[in-house]
Description:
- By secondary structure, the chain is mainly β.
- The chain contains no helices and 32 strands.
- The strands form six sheets. Strands 6, 7, 8, 10, 11, 12, 17, 18, 19, 20, 23, 24, 25 and 26 form a 14-stranded antiparallel sheet that branches. It has a six-stranded antiparallel sheet with strand order 4-5-1-32-29-30, with no helix packed on it.
Amino acid sequence: MKGRALPRGVCGLAIAPDHPFGYIHGIMRKPTRLVPGISLLAASCLLSTQVAFAEAKTFVIDPEKSTLTLSGTALGAALQQQGPGSLSTTYSGNILADVTENAVTFVGGSTMAAANSGSWGPGAGGAAGTAPANYGARATTGLGSGTAALRELLFDITSESIPTLGGTFAADGLTFLIPATASSVADYSAGFFAGSEALAGKSGDNVGQGANISVVGDELVLTITVDYTLVIADISGQFRIRGQLVAKAPNIVPLVIPGPVITPESIGFNIPTEIGKSYTILGSEDLGIPLIEWQVIDQFTATSTTEARNIAVALAGQQFFILRADD
């Protein structure tokens, strides 16, 4: 029997006469034979009692806790602030990641956008004056001083699969990439030398060491130590961006179907539930049909933290069951 993924918020179990292998959420395991003619194909849907793993997550960046600071050099001289706060800004947007029980992969498609920290020189395209910018820096060389401003910075985050241990993983496996469609630019002016460099397509490997995913209440909290360098070729710039990103995603814990009690006439479940929440048990003899076509076997509203439900079953043919939380 080929595995089929179940929708979020449902948990499935299958029984079949003497089937040689078991199926649940894509996990194959040997059956437990409880009643002549029936093999229990799955004893539990429990993936984790704390964290909902093995799915794509959209983490929403918390701007109040996500600040990155600019340092580095331009034309061989150290970057300095143009004014208070010009070298620091907050970030917002989403970070996309596939999270499993022992690994995390940043799959691309993230939108990490820098806020404007003020109006800084030069103006757009290197023109005289100032304009809103994410960062504003100045540098002084033996030939004089100049200014640079980073505008409309937008980053994606990608990685290979990174092992996790207790939620902790190595942040130096991340790559920060400015998408090809981004309008990100570095505007600069140093007297007679002025212009603008498009930043789309540029990337930098993170060298920050610390990152983790933790459970806080009903949320997953992603924390990344950021330290990567953006190269601005026109001004021989090495722009180092450092700080911390914090982002959050809902922690949707999978439903649980514990090992059922099977008799020749029925199958019984002791289901951990949330008081006041409504549940539906669906049944089908065909795993391949759309969920909307499954038959409603039982519906109930939990009055305790464990509900005992008994379902009459026939021994002929394989049967599949899904537990669904309805609110």
